[in-house]
Amino acid sequence: MSDFHQNGIITDFHNLTHRSVDSLEADLVQFSRQRPMSLILPSLYSELEGPALNHIVQEIAAAPYLEEVVIGLDRADEAQFRHAREFFARLPQRHRILWNDGPKLTALDRELEARGLSPQEPGKGRNVWYCAGYVQASARSQVVALHDCDILTYDRGMLARLFYPVAHPHFNYEFCKGYYPRIAEGKLNGRVSRLMVTPLLRALKVIAGPLPYLDYLDSFRYPLSGEFAMRSDVLDGIRIPADWGLEIGVLSEVQRNHSTHRLCQVDLADSYDHKHQPVSEDDAAAGLNRMSLDIAKALYRKLATQGVTFSAEDFRTLKATYYRLALDLIEAYDHDATMNGLTLDRHAEEQAVELFARNLLDAGAAFLDNPGERPFIASWNRVRAAIPDVLERLHDAVEGDNAPGCAGSYKL
C-alpha cells in the first residue's frame, strides 16, 4: 500500500484502499457514456506464443467499459496474421488488428516514406504511431490507453486504474502515467529507471541548474513504464520517438503541449513483472545497452530545445556527477531490499552503472556529431496536412484486413 504524499509537480493517484475492480469498473461503465474508451496493444507476433498475452486477453475480455481494442501486430506473415485474428477473436469488444507487415499497410507506408513522413525504423514507436492514427480514424473513443503485451502479473484492475483519472467526466486530466514497484521472484528489478534515469536527472540538475522540465520528469515514480492513458485528441499533436526513448519522449511531448496541472500518474499494482531485457554489454544496438543510449540522447535533445548547451567537457562532468549519485543510490537500494527480504546483486548493479556511465559519453558524442538527427516520427497533424485523406485510407486498409471471412468473427 502506497502513501498519500504528493511529492512532485503532477498529481499522484495512490492505491490507498485496494478498492475492488468491480467497483472501479462500475464507475467506468458510467464514465464511458460520456467518454468512450479504447485500448492500444502494440505486439510482436512472438508475444502471441509467449507466457503473458493469453492471460492479458482473457482479462481485457472481461472489461465491460471498453469500446474498442486496437492491436498493432509486428513481424507477422499472412499465416501468422490469420492466427492472430483467431487468437484475438475471443474479445467481445470491437477489435481491429493492424497487420503492419501486410500489403495494405506497407503500401501506405511506402507512400509516407516517399514524402519523408514514414517512421525511420521498425519497433514499438512505429507500431504505436500507426495504432494512434487508426484510433483517430476510427473516432470511436475520447480516451485511449496503451500498455505492453508481455506483462506477466497483469490483471484488469491495472487497466481500470489507468483509465480512471482521464475517463472521469468531472476530472480535467488529459494524460495519466502508470507506476508500480518492479519486484518479481524476490528480486528488485527496474535497473534502467533506478540506476540510470533517476541519478541522470539529478546529475543534470547539478550540471544544467534547476529546470521545470527536469523537476517534471523527476516527479514520475516510474518514468519508463509502458502504461499510459490520454484523451484521444492528445494523440493528434504529439511526436512519437521511434527508438527506445519512446516513454521519455511521450512525457516530454505532453509536457510541451499541456499544463502540468492536466497531467497525473497512478499506482497500478503492488508488484509488476514482464519480459526482461538483457544488458548486452558487448552490443550497443541491443538490450539495456541500446535503451540507455537512446534515453540519454532523448534527454539531451529535449534540454537543447530549452536552451541548454552541451560540450564534450560538459558530458565528461555529467558522467562523473552521475556516477557518484548512482553509486550512492545502489547502497540505498541494497539496504531497502535487505529490509524487505529481497535480493539485490550489488556487483551486477555496479556493472550496470559503469555501462550507463560510458553510454552517457557515447550518447553525448552522437548528439554533438549528428545535430540533424530526426528521432521523432511526424505528428499525425503534420501527416494530414501533407496527405489530407491519409486517416481515411489507413482506416480502409485496416478494415479490409479485418473483414470477416478468413478467421474468427468480428463485431462490426
UniProtKB/TrEMBL annotation:
Which InterPro entries does this UniProt record tie to the protein? Nucleotide-diphossugar_trans
Which superkingdom does the taxonomy of this entry point to? Bacteria
Q: Which UniProt keywords apply?
A: Transferase
Which Gene Ontology molecular-function terms are recorded?
transferase activity
Q: What is this protein called?
A: Glycosyl transferase
